[in-house]
Amino acid sequence: MHQRNSLIRLVEDGECYRFDYQVRHGAILCRRQDAELTLGMALNLIRHVFGNQWAPRAVHFEHPRPEHWHEHCKIFDAPVYFEQPCNSLLIPKRGLTRAMPEHDPLLLLVMQDSLRQLSLAGRNEPNIVDDARAQIRQRLLLGEPVLEDIAEQMGMSSWSLQRRLREQNLSFSALVDKQRRDLATFYMRQQQLPISELAPLLGYSEVSAFSRAFRRWFGVSPRQWRQHSDLVQPGRLQ
Length: 238
Hints:
Blueprint: E1 6-13, E2 16-23, H1 32-50, E3 58-60, H2 70-76, E4 80-81, E5 87-92, H3 105-121, H4 128-140, H5 147-153, H6 158-167, H7 172-188, H8 198-201, H9 207-218, H10 222-227
Parallel strand pairs: 3-4
Antiparallel strand pairs: 1-2, 2-5, 3-5
Helix pairs in contact: 4-7
C-alpha cells in the first residue's frame, strides 16, 4: 500500500528465509540508494528484536559493486554480493523465536483490517507500459526480450499486449529500444563499468551490436560519449 510497482516478499531458502526487495517501475533506473536504504531499514528492524550483534547470512544487491564496497560488509557484518538478480537479506531460521518488543496483537488485527479495506478501495487498473518496461528490464539480463515471453510474464497473450501498447501509441520494439537507451545512458555514467561489459547488461550478445545501437541513439561511439560526457547535458530518465 505504501509503495506501488515494487516487490517485497519473504521466501524459504534452505536454512534461511530470504527477504527480497525490488523496485519494478520500468522508468526508475537509479535504484542503488533506495535498495541500500530499504535493506538497511530491514536490518535495523531485525536488530531491534535480536540485538545489535545480529547479522544476516549474506546480503545481495542488484547494482554494480561500488568503490567503497567494504563498508557495506562492515555495516551488515556479512558477505555482500553485487549484480545479483534481486536485493535480498538471507536470514538464518535458527533462533527466530523471540517476539517483537512492544508487540500488540490487537493493534495488528486492526491494522490488517484497515489495509485490507484500503486495498479493496484503492485497486486501480495496472499500468501496462510500466509493467512491460519492468519485465523488459529484467529480461535484458538474459538476452533479447521476446514479445511472447514478456506477455506470458504479464499474464496475457502477445496480441493482447500489442493491442494495449498500440492504445498508448507504442510498439513492443520501440519500448525495448527506449528501455535500452535509458539503461545505456545510466550505465555509461557509471565510470567504474567498462564499456566492454555493457552489451550483456542491455541484452546484446556482442559489443558490436551495442556500439551500432549507441551510434544510432546518440550519433557518437560509446567511447566518444564517455570521453565528452561532461559536455552532455544530463536529462531525466523517463
